[in-house]
Amino acid sequence: MLKIFIFLLLIGLGACQVVRPCALSDLACIGRNLAANSRCNPNVPGRIPARYSVQSLPFYAPYFNATYIDYNLVVSNHNRCRVSEFFINLSSKTAVLSLDCPDLDFASNRLTIQHASLQEDREFSYTIQGTYPLIRLTTNLHASNGLNLCSSFTFADVVALPKFRLNPNNKKTANYLSRDLTLLNIFERECFFWRASLLARYFINSLICNFGCNS
């Protein structure tokens, strides 16, 4: 409780500094600090499954003029994420919480809807499985918003591009899919723009402090 008390006292004094009140491996300490300054509940399950499924997860990639829907999405190794940074900037009254997630694996039956001006949408279906060597998730929690994770943005850094497998479900899709991976880095950034908050919230709500949202 001493670390929490110091945190609150320094905020009250308007101190201008960055503090790191907890060891990065001490999730309980991080949870207590967040709970002391928000409405989250530090009594968490303390685990997430090594493998779980999501019925459907849509995302839009503006650069490619396409909408993607992952059906029966299976997420593996999410439980291997670790806190890689946690600090509080007392001047800006912002807490920064980062997670490093190695070997995140996603497998789904994906529907791609290709959009074009003055044209009917085209649809393509394929199975996809990809493993990402490292995804880094960073969330800024602001005191002005009550350190509310549920309405905070999470930035995803796709540190290394994935190894993946594609299997088209029909000939039309096989002809559509490209072997040119030049723009893969752009696609993955757009993909994880939508995935990032879901991944961060599920981990934080399950292992650190429950803000009451997983989506």
Computed over alpha carbons, the radius of gyration is 20 Å
> What is the molecular shape?
elongated
Tell me, rounded to a whole number, the average pLDDT.
Answer: 92
Residues in helix, %? 10-25%
Biggest beta sheet attributes: 8 strands, antiparallel
Query: What is the total tally of β strands?
Result: 8
Number of helices: 4
Q: How much strand?
A: 35-45%
SSE run? HEHEEEEEEEHH
Briefly note the structural class of the backbone: alpha+beta
Extract low-pLDDT stretches. none
Q: In angstroms, what separates the terminal alpha carbons?
A: 30 Å
Question: Your description of this structure?
Answer:
The protein is of the alpha+beta class. 24% of the residues lie in helices and 40% in strands. Strands 1, 2, 3, 4, 5, 6, 7 and 8 form an 8-stranded antiparallel beta sheet that branches. Helix 1 (2-13) packs across helix 2 (27-36). The chain is elongated. The protein starts with a helix and ends in an 8-residue tail after the last helix. The mean pLDDT is 92.
Short description:
The protein is an alpha+beta fold and 215 residues long. It has helices at 2-13, 27-36, 171-176, 184-207; strands at 18-19, 51-61, 66-76, 82-89, 94-114, 122-142, 154-158, 163-168. Strand 4 (82-89) and strand 5 form a beta hairpin.
Task: Please supply descriptive tags for the structure shown above.
about 220 residues, alpha+beta, eight-stranded antiparallel sheet, 4 helices, 8 strands, elongated
List the helices and strands and how they pair.
Layout: H1 2-13, E1 18-19, H2 27-36, E2 51-61, E3 66-76, E4 82-89, E5 94-114, E6 122-142, E7 154-158, E8 163-168, H3 171-176, H4 184-207
